[in-house]
Give the backbone structure.
Amino acid sequence: MSKITQFSTIGALMSGHLRGEAPLSHFCPAHGFGLGCSPEISGELTIHEGKVHEASAGEALHLVTAETLVPFLQVTEFSPQQTHRIVSVTQDTAYERLSQFIRPDNIFLAVTIVGVFDHLLLRRPQRAEGSQRSVDDVAASQREDSYKSISGRLIGFWTPELFGRVSVPGFHFHFLDDEARISGHVLEFEASEATLSFEEKTSIEIVNPASDAYRALSIDVGALDEMIHRIEK
Ligand SMILES: [Zn+2]
């Protein structure tokens, strides 16, 4: 399948539309690959081989059920077209490493980087206490944790800048360790050696939320662009 299926947009999420509306079962294929977040951004979701792992600050990593309604999700079936050994890869050199093999600027890719990470910085949100909170509340309460010599995989997508209000532009990676105990949104990573795999996705299907709350959402696209770069990158 060369398609990415996505529920909602990073633009709607960052404009504060955080309520869960999409049932995971509806979007996630059996061997699904991807990422997302849980309602009110209570957790970062990482989807590997069809299992949906929820990472929240201060909680053990756990699976969420297929009935869970989520506010944002990006999934696909991943069949790598190319796999390469790469050296000295970080969040800053990953674009260069990828560009040795493909010109990514204007295309979508599903991407994994698998290996032992000498350094990894993950971000996890605190679970929401009430039923509603703002994006600023989420940002203020999220926690960052760093790891050394941790074995696992980055799971995510490359999105062209042109689609920067649909998805996080550039790389958006979540991490899952080999034992499925540690996960989260990736802020920094460093591996002296790793395996990079990717698959070009020629189409993206965006399912828009259909609720009245979404219809009534006011979106300031100018402020949004700044926010997406500040919070998601
Ligand atoms: Zn993320």
User: Anything to note?
Assistant: Residues 35, 44, 172, 174, 185 surround zinc ion (CB under 6 Å). Residues 2 and 202 are 6 Å apart (CA to CA). The mean pLDDT is 94. Helices lie at 10-14, 24-27, 94-99, 135-141, 212-215, 221-232.
